[in-house]
Amino acid sequence: MNRTDRLYGIVEELRAAAPRPRSARRLAERFEVSVRTVERDLAALQQSGLPIWAEPGRTGGYVIDASATLGPAGFTPDEALAVLIGLGALGTSPFRQAARTAARKVLAVMPDRDAARAGAVASRVHFLEADGDPVTPVTFAEALRSDRVVRLRYRAADGSESSRDVEPLGSIEKDGHWYLVAWCRLRDGVRAFRGDRMASIEVTDERPPRRVLRTEDLGIEYGRLRPVGGD
């Protein structure tokens, strides 16, 4: 997590807890950094004008005036439930960490009564997953958004491994498997790489040339591609 995301996360963690305090140690454990780093972050937030103050004592910590941060999101109860279910469906995806923090943020910016109702209903919804369902590395998400050439150590279906430099073009999910669609320099063409077969993912500093991905390049013989933002 970079510092900007951590600063935002600290604000939302304090807002969700308000008016109860959060200790620097608990925040440090939450964001997996040192207490000193958290204290520097809190000082920076205070200097930026956010109403954060320290409460002394054994049960003290840092408190924020919740009304001074993000306002309530204008979700209806059904919309909030849909968002929480959608984020929960990403539990084994490469976006699972971001989905968990996003779910907390959704509830944190809602009025308390609506957030409690949405959380209670969401707790009744479950996903039936088989033991050993494939888990895609979270670095898959970095490879997708990086706009850089990515070096993959990839295991084929027969177990053989190869090293490939690829230029990410997009991603497809099917039956719980996440595929990175990319221009493969080894094969000089578009290929789809299954996330759970990626032994390692290294994002390089090289920017790839601009390429246009066409549906016909994928060679899909059945099914219909639906973009995330589509109906």
UniProtKB/TrEMBL annotation:
Source superkingdom: Bacteria
Pfam families: HTH_11, WYL
Cleavable signal peptide: none
Annotated ranges, domain WYL: 140-203
InterPro entries the UniProt entry points to: CBASS_pafABC_assoc_protein (IPR051534), HTH_11 (IPR013196), WH-like_DNA-bd_sf (IPR036388), WH_DNA-bd_sf (IPR036390), WYL_dom (IPR026881)
PANTHER family according to UniProt: PROTEIN PAFC, PTHR34580
Protein name: YafY family protein
Lineage: Bacteria, Bacillati, Actinomycetota, Actinomycetes, Micrococcales
